[in-house]
Amino acid sequence: MATLAPLAGRGCPWQLVAIARCVVPLLVISLWAKWDGVKLFVWDNPVLWVRSLAGSLSLVLTFSVLASVHITNLRVTDIYAICNIYPIWIALLSWPMLGRLPTGAVWLSIFSSITGVYLLQGAELQAGNFAALIVVAASIISAVAMMGLNRLKDLDPRTVVVHFSATALVFALLSLCLLPVYEFDEPFAWTHLGELLGIGLTACVGQYYLTKAFTAGDPARVSVASLSQFVFVLILDVLVLDHSLDWNKLWGIPLIVGPTAWLMLRRVKTSTLGVETITDPSAGIPAEWEVCVNSAGSNDSK
Prior knowledge:
This protein has 302 residues and is mainly alpha-helical. It is 68% helix and 0% strand. It has one domain. It is built from 13 helices and no strands.
């Protein structure tokens, strides 16, 4: 999907790419769930609504950049590197929302990630290209979407996917009506239609199995494994999208991805030992709003 979105965005509005991302999973997963008798719509779950609303906003922000790389000049590799710092934002947001003061490791990770973003996009930011900041905002909002996601384990993954896809479709349609449409590099062709279908199908498969994995398995382990997608994105970015590697900027990538992997690996070690640190500030907080720092990845855009 990360490769198909920029290709499709060359021949149609980025909003249409986002719509395709929402429509196909909504239809496919809904039909599948209906066939199995799974309850599709849940209206009275506040955690699910927060996840869908925040995730939908993050999706729109992400695709406004991902499907417009021919305008913003951002590389897909850079976009995915910045998006994947969401666990750091979750740890930081737990301070004002849950009263859990971030540790020194979290502050160090934040500093490292900000430095990495500057190395990747510092020149562009100084030139007035603020597209990278949109990706940072999307990552922060993704963190909001992930908070409390572990409290949705009792729901079928298909219910979560359908709820999010339907909500995100509304956001994508609103973006088509309210936000500017960028110029196209190519006239719309059948190849772009195939790319839109491919985006929807890959999103369908990816979101379902990631949701299922984070529900059934250890979130920390799955989070570390999900970082492997970055390697594939980097390869496809070079081979398919023909984006050359800027070795001066590549130093920023480990500064962004490294701290994220570090925090996840520390969580894996903790879960392996069966040790859980519980701090007093979390006492009395409603269970449905407890944070799972390693909840499902930034898969609102995936």
